[in-house]
Structure prediction request, 169 residues.
Amino acid sequence: MDVARDGERVAASLTDWLAALTFAERGPDEVTALVVNSIVEWATGQGWRVYRRAPSVLPLPPPYQHRHSYLDVACARPGGAPIAIEVDHTDRRRTVDKLLAEAAEGRIAIWVRWGSRGFAPPPPPVLMVTCPVTSVPGRAYSRLPATSRPAPDHTAVDLGFAEQPDLFA
Prediction:
């Protein structure tokens, strides 16, 4: 199986799943927890084994190099490469390093970014899934459902030659 192509398919599926996530006026930690919970739901629905806070292959920096950092979500899939997922709303170099180390071990590495700013893409083979949110004053964030309403009906009358009142008379 082509891991790169499989990774793109997995990332597209996760993107579609997260498109339905909505919430209002939540703090940063709450938003991260909602996104992680939604990812766990998605992966469980695929029939995969899901691990929260799974140990990463990347050790912590000194003086804790004998310990390992953790992934937000890891998934074991029958017949497919394991998946390593990190969720952030900030641009953290440590996250990129961790996901690159996971990818080097043959895992599909996905960085789920949420926020209201543009996101710089990570280096390949790390894949990025974005979850745009709206920032509300007071450090709260919202993600409301998209509404798809048709354009309002317009008059069929040609207003090009309508007489306009003189507002300065």
About this structure: The chain has one domain: 3-143. The helical segments are 3-18, 28-45, 93-104.
